[in-house]
Amino acid sequence: MADQIAIATVVAIQGRAFARSENGEIRQLEIGDIVYRGDTILTGERDFVELATADGLRLAIDENQEVYMSEELLSEALIVLMKVHFLLPPLIALSKP
Predict the structure, then answer these.
(1) What are the boundaries of each domain within the chain?
(2) What does each of the 97 residues of the chain score in pLDDT, given as a tens digit?
(3) What is the C-alpha to C-alpha distance for residues 88 and 90, in angstroms, rounded to an integer?
(4) What are phi and psi of 72, to 5 degrees?
């Protein structure tokens, strides 16, 4: 595991969630576990997991999902978050009477 790059930490779980490594090994996730680049996060029916990156980005993975963890995924999530952050205040201002 020394050459694996940590991407996020599990901060919340409802039900059960698993991580499948690039070599196919599956482990059940628990709060505080590290998720590595190349892991695929698996959730089943009524399962949910929330991850946090070192820079504070939160990623919620809903039920019945398979999400491949990569820097690109986190970069795209950060771009969406930034767009919401910059667009929301003008939209709120426009909606006020």
Answers:
(1) 6-70
(2) 447 888 899 999 999 999 999 999 999 999 999 999 999 999 999 999 999 888 788 888 899 999 888 876 655 554 444 444 455 444 444 555 5
(3) 6
(4) -65, -40
DSSP 41: E
Place of tokens 């980005």: 57
Instruction: Round to whole Å and give the CA distance between 86 and 17.
Output: 33
pTM, entire model: 0.73
Picking from 69, 64, 6, 10, the residue whose alpha carbon sits closest to that of residue 39 is 69
* Cα 35 from Cα 91, distance rounded (Å): 35
Tokens of 6: 């940590």
Query: Are 38 and 21 in contact, with CB atoms under 8 Å apart?
Result: yes
CA 26 – CA 75 distance, rounded (Å):
25
- Letter for the amino acid at 15? G
